Amino acid sequence: MAKEEIAVTNVKVLKRTNVKPQKPLGKKECQLVTFDLPYLSFYYNQKLMIYKGVENFEETVEKLKDGLALVLEDFYQLAGKLGKDEEGVFKVEYDDDMDGVEVIVAAADGIEVAHLTDEEGTTKFLDLIPCNKILNLEGLHRPLLAVQLTKLKDGLSMGLAFNHAVLDGTSTWHFMTSWAQLCCGSTSISVPPYLERTKARNTRVKLNLSKPSDAPEHAKSATNGDVTATVDPPLLERVFKFSESAIDQIKAKVNANPPEGSAAPFSTFQSLSAHVWLAVTRARELKPEDYTVYTVFADCRKRVDPPMPESYFGNLIQAIFTVTAAGLLLAHPIEFAAGMIQQAIVKHDAKAIEERNKEWESSPKIFQYKDAGVNCVAVGSSPRFKVYDVDFGWGKPEIVRSGSNNRFDGMVYLYPQKNGGRGIDVEISLEANAMERLEKDKEFLVEA
Fold this sequence. Notes:
This protein is of the alpha+beta class. 24% of the residues lie in helices and 23% in strands.
C-alpha cells in the first residue's frame, strides 16, 4: 500500500534578504527567444539539495551569500526581472537598483537529514522550497531566483526556485556548480555563461500576457478537446533507484534484438525510457485503443544550426513527442518502444527545430505545463547533470530532488545516483492507484 506523506510544517522563517551582484554592472537587457517563451505559463522550476553536517549555520549562510554576490556578476540575468519592450516582446532586464535574488533564511531544528532522505515524495519538502505554485510569468514583479536556506538538526536544506522562462536544466546546474566553485575559494568561475540568446534564435514574438490570469493555468489540454471542470486525481510521487547492474540488465534486454532500421545500440537513456514507458502504461491499465504519449524535453544546443556552446545560458530545449496505442506498445517487445523513442530523438535535427519554431511563431500558443499529451510519460532533468558535484565546501549533497511544481500524472525526473556510478534515480509522479501497481511490478523493479 502506498504511504501517505506528511509535510515538514515546523519551518520557521527567520529572515528575508536580497543579494545583488557584488559590483555595479549598469543596465543590461536580453530578449527572450522562441525557445524561452512557451515556459512563461509553467511554474518556477524547484530543486532541493540536502546537506549533512554543516557547521555554524549563520556563518555558512553568509559564506553562501558572498559566493552568490560574486557568481551573479556573471549570471546577472538571475538577479533581474522579466520585462516587455514597447512592442510587447518579453525580455530579461537587469539594473543595479533592482532587488536581486531573494534569500530566505529559515530553521527546522527538529528535523533530521535522515527524515528527508528516508522516504520518497515531495509533500514533505513544501515548506523547504520557495515559490510553490508561482507561474514564471510572475517574474515581471518577482525575483527570477529565490533561495531558501533552512537549518536542520544535523545539516542544511537548500531550496531553489528558478524562473523556467529564463533558464533550463543545463543552465541551472552550470549556475549551481559555478556558485559552489566560488564558495570553495576559486577567484573566478571556470566556464562563463554564454549570454547571447539571440544567436540561437532572433525572431521577435509579441505575446499579450501581463498577469498570471493571462496564462492558461486552467486551459483545456492540448489533446483532450472539450473543457470540463475536472478535479485532478491525487498523485503520489516515488523515487525508484536503478543500480548500475539494473541499468545494464535493462540495456542488454533492449539491445538483444534491435529492430531493423534502428541506429547504433540503444543508449542508456533510450533503454530506460522504454522500460519506464512500458511499466507506467501497464500500471495505468489503459484500454488497448487508448493512446499514450512519451515526451522528452531534449537539449538542442548541439542540434541547432549553428550549434550553441554547452555554456549557452537560457532555455535551449524542446519537447519531442512519440505516440502510439497502449495495446500496440504492450503487445511488442521492449525494443519496439525504444525504437520509436530513438527515431523521434534522431529526427529532431536542425531542420525539425527550425520548422517547429516557425510554426510556433506564426501562431504562438502558451501551454499549461501538463499539456504534454494524453496518458503521457514526460521526462525532465537528466542523469548527465552532475548534481552531486555541487559542493560548497562541506561535502556533496545527501539527496537532490525536484519540488512539487510542474508535476502531473506521468512526470518523470531523472538524476544520477549519489555514489558517482552509472546508477539512476527515477522520480515519478502518478495517479495513486497506478503508483500502487507500479510499486509491485517486479519486471519494472528489475528484481532478481
